[in-house]
């Protein structure tokens, strides 16, 4: 009986019994599937019962086949009884029985339902994002207070390592991109100002635009795409490998160990990169003004000195650390939200970049309103 499973049809008066015997386990899957498929072709009703008293071994696969057979033989709401079920296997069969068969999704006649549902999910997701950002900001604040009370607990080596990654290694691409943007802005400005014979005014536009807006905004967007995504990927990989749970088990706060060094490195890196980006953009604009617009370097520098003030430089430098804080918080929130799959890691990495750029632009707009209201 234990060698091979069987499923026999036995007549009991006017009724028919399906008697299962032997091991109903996964190793015998092909034979069990074939026997159950043949039995399902009988049709069902109250005249059929399933006898499992001779089943020697039963696992989840066998229990599901018995439940599948019971469901297929159900006719008019009348279910065939299962007889001879031992107490050892009763809980397994009952657990499988609780699994509801999923119906095929039906197409809603209301065409507006799907867009409205998507909008609702987006609103809920945005609310969750804001809650997580506030929670991370609070955790960073508490961690900062702990560092101020115990300065030796700050992880300087880790901060220097991350500073090298996000600042020193980012200098070439930041300088190159801002240099090219400065060249493009100057060329377009000269092209349009030349119609009015006001080529020299491109220096005013370039200086104010680069110092106040373009310099810090371009650097923040590049840092969000380069370093913010790296932060999310690093923390997400650690989350997938349960390294963050291991830190908590050992008594370490992940905010102190992982978030604070990255955040401080970014707070130091973005202002420095912004300064280098501004210089590169002005240099590129000056070259284009010289070779394309005929504005001599001496005239360019004199006009630049007259058109800008220290306030323009201060505005850009005030924005830089705030942008860095936003990028770091968003990147760390998304990294710690990664689940245990590669798909989740990719989704949160993409979300980190998109949200960082969105919040950077929003903050830039808020700064524009604030500085305009105070006359800067």
Features:
12 helices
Radius of gyration, in Å, reads 34 Å
Can you give the mean pLDDT?
Answer: 86
Give the helices and strands as they follow along the chain.
Answer: EEHEHEHHHHHHHHHH
Number of strands: 4
Q: What is the tally of helical segments?
A: 12
Uncertain residue ranges: none
Question: In order across it, which strands form the biggest sheet?
Answer: 1-2-3-4
Structure report:
The chain is elongated and about 110 Å long. The protein has a 4-stranded mixed sheet with strand order 1-2-3-4, with helices on one face. The mean pLDDT is 86. Helix content is 70%, strand content 8%. With 376 residues, the protein is an alpha/beta fold. Strand 1 and strand 2 (15-24) form a beta hairpin.
Map the helices and strands.
Blueprint: E1 6-12, E2 15-24, H1 29-40, E3 48-58, H2 60-72, E4 82-83, H3 87-97, H4 113-149, H5 156-166, H6 171-193, H7 201-240, H8 243-249, H9 254-291, H10 297-307, H11 310-336, H12 342-373
Parallel strand pairs: 2-3, 3-4
Antiparallel strand pairs: 1-2
Helix pairs in contact: 1-2, 2-3, 4-9, 4-11, 5-9, 6-7, 6-9, 7-9, 7-10, 7-11, 7-12, 9-11, 11-12
